[in-house]
Each structure stands twice: as C-alpha cells, then as structure tokens.
Amino acid sequence: MGGCVSKSNEEPMYRPRLGMGCCGSKMGRRTLSGRIVSLHDLVSIPNRITSSGKSKSSCVFTQQGRKGVNQDSMIVWEDFMSKDMTFCGVFDGHGPNGHLVSRKVRESLPVRLLSFMHSIHEEDKLKLLWEEAFLKSFNAMDKELRSHPNVECFCSGSTAVTIIKQGSHLFMGNIGDSRAILGSKDSNDSMVAVQLTVDLKPDLPREAERIKQCKGRVFALEDEPEVPRVWLPFDNAPGLAMARAFGDFCVKDYGVISIPDFSHRLLTDRDQFIVLASDGVWDVLSNEEVVEVVASASSRASAARLVVDSASREWKLKYPTSKMDDCAVVCLFLDGKMDSESSYYEEQRSSSVESDESQRTEPCLQRNATVRSSSVESNSCGNENAETDDAEKEKATEGEQHWSGLEGVTRVNSLVQLPRFSGD
C-alpha cells in the first residue's frame, strides 16, 4: 500500500534496512529503487541538509560559540519516508567528544527511526507506531554509542530534540535541554509561542526522583544556584546539567537515561512554523522573542540566522564576561513555502560583514550561571581515537588543553568535571 497515510497517487514509503550490527556496521535504508544506502552515502540523498542553508520548506543555521569546536549538529530531511513527511533534529553535544557524539546521532538516529517504522494502513495507529519507533530507535542509538570503537562516550554525550511532521500530524521525541516551539496565530491573528517540548533538567520532580532512586545526586553549586546538576554518589563529578542524554555512560547507572519524552500534536491552519534550537539560544531568548524574530524576518530563508544573531547580541548584553555558547537553529515553515533564491543570497551577503565583526571581539571569561550549557569540560578523554580524519584534526586543534569546568575558562558547562575513574 502507499506510504504513511499517503494517498494513492503518492510515492510508496520505502523500507530501510540495517546492516550487520550497530558499531562499525553499515547502517542503511532501502530506497524506492531498491538500492541499499549506507550512512556513508547519506550526503547524496536529496532534500537532506545538515549545514547552514535552506530547503524547500525550512532554513537552518549554526554558529560556533567562543569555547572551542562547535558541538551542535542539526538536520532537516524532507520526503523522509513519503512526500508529506519531514524529519528535523537539533543535537547539542557536551564533553570532550561532544561534537563527535552529536554528529553521530545526527547521521544514525534518522536511519534508525526508518528501520523501526513499518507500513501504516490506518491513521489511528500513527501515534502508537511512531512512539514505538522513537523509543526503539533512541534505545538502539544509545547502545551503538556505548560500544562504538571510535567515539568515546563515557564522559561525553548529546541532547536530541527531534520531530516528524507527517501531514497534519506532529510527532516529537526529546532528551536533554534543547527545545522545540511552535509559532501560531491566536483568534486575533496575533503570533503566539507554544512550547512543544520540556527541557529535561535534573530538578524536574520526576527526573530528580528517578536519579535519586538510582543513587545519583542532584544539586546546584553555590555560585550557580539556578543550575541543577547530576552527580555521582561517590564523587563531585560530572555535574551534568541535564537528566536525559545520549552517551554520558559514567552516569547511566545513576539515573540519567536516553528514553525520549514522546508527544503528539495535530497541527491546524493557524500554526505557522516550528523552531528547534540548542540551549545556546534558549539561555538568552524567550519562546516569544524567537517567534517574533522568525515572524518578522524579511525573508524566510534568513529566519534561522536572525535567531542566532539575536541570541549572539543577547549573550553580549546579559553575560558580557562569559563566552557565548554554540547555537543551532532549524525553522520549518508549515505551509511548505520559501523565498526566491535571490532574496536568500542577498540576505546572506548583507549579514557577512556583521558576522565577521562579531567574531573579532573576545570577552574575558568567568564562570557563567545560566541554566544550561552545552559545552564541556575534560582533559584526558580528549586523547581517545577519533572516528574520522576530521575528528583527528579537531582533537589535534584542541591538543592537550586542560578542560576545567570549575575554573570556567572555556565554556558555560554541561559538565563540571570528569569523574576520577581508573584508566580502564
């Protein structure tokens, strides 16, 4: 039969197929032509973008903060399984290898979702089937990271805020403190912001209870009382600023989990766009401010960049002595329309001077007390083998740098310090 809730004249849904095992294996999906596409071939798939730019119905933008390598990743994959389906995700890495973890999740998680999804013949089964697919794929993704031969995840991890838009259905799976919001019109045709996901912080009652039952500890440091963190029972480490994440296996036995918070929403004609972003945005901009920026953008293709520009300005105003965090933004416009190519490139050119200027000044850093953090502190873990040549270059750039969250010399921290474990 046709794809998920697809009409008879739409292309049928393709079925993915995984290769042998999860770590170091060839994971892929079967296309409509029957060819198996491995993860290495994902870059050739049409309507899939993972870097700053735009697609048929979305724009994406990321900007490195002032703490080191950009650990944020993002993806928009249109025509995900059928013509009416789009997958979007933002992944915020933390820890010495957070950039590798977030990229691995960006590449593998959508394919795993495909692999667990089956043909849908009845719309009333959509929610249950997608919930099962989200739960299974997030679990498989974390298992892959645990045993991955080239990505050390013991003290590194990533958030994930992901959505599937299928017709008027919106399915969401979220771990960590990245966030998705909806820009919609109220009865007076005024734009309003609707938060779609919950920031899964350690002080949420259900999260704190689970962590404490597993012998983990939850408390904030004296100099940042608004930042609850997860600590080992026997050591004041790692101080993880979220209750759910991929990776971070040093605290997985103490209440931190990778089970997504799944939800479903029916979209209406009043709903205009969806914004996914890492906490580098949400630490300084409210939901309402982000909706206002997107709704007032001179061109839709520039909306994601304008959100990051606004966040950058707010970081300088609110936290002038702290280094700005990485930012990643995905804007999905629900009517499926974008601007002309000319308006997009004109916007890009006009912003280049401003972007260059903003990168010149370097504020001195002292430790920030914001509620989040996406970056990381570590030392010896940075000497692990990298998955690719690019990863090796990034590690070489970082060199033997000592990452000390307590000194606050490089980042607003998702981790405070690495636990004191033996070498093995």
TrEMBL record:
Residue segments, region Disordered: 344-409
The UniProt record lists the keyword Repeat: no
Keywords (A to Z) from UniProt: Hydrolase, Magnesium, Manganese, Metal-binding, Protein phosphatase
Pfam family, one: PP2C
SMART domains: PP2Cc (SM00332)
GO molecular function, one term: metal ion binding
Catalysed reactions, as listed in the record: O-phospho-L-seryl-[protein] + H2O = L-seryl-[protein] + phosphate; O-phospho-L-threonyl-[protein] + H2O = L-threonyl-[protein] + phosphate
Biased composition (Polar residues): 367-385
Start and end residues of each PPM-type phosphatase domain: 57-334
Family per record: Belongs to the PP2C family.
Composition skew (Low complexity), residue ranges: 344-353
Biological processes per GO annotation: regulation of intracellular signal transduction
Biased composition (Basic and acidic residues): 392-401
Enzyme class: hydrolase
Protein name: protein-serine/threonine phosphatase
EC assignment: 3.1.3.16
Cofactor(s) recorded in Swiss-Prot or TrEMBL: Mg(2+); Mn(2+)
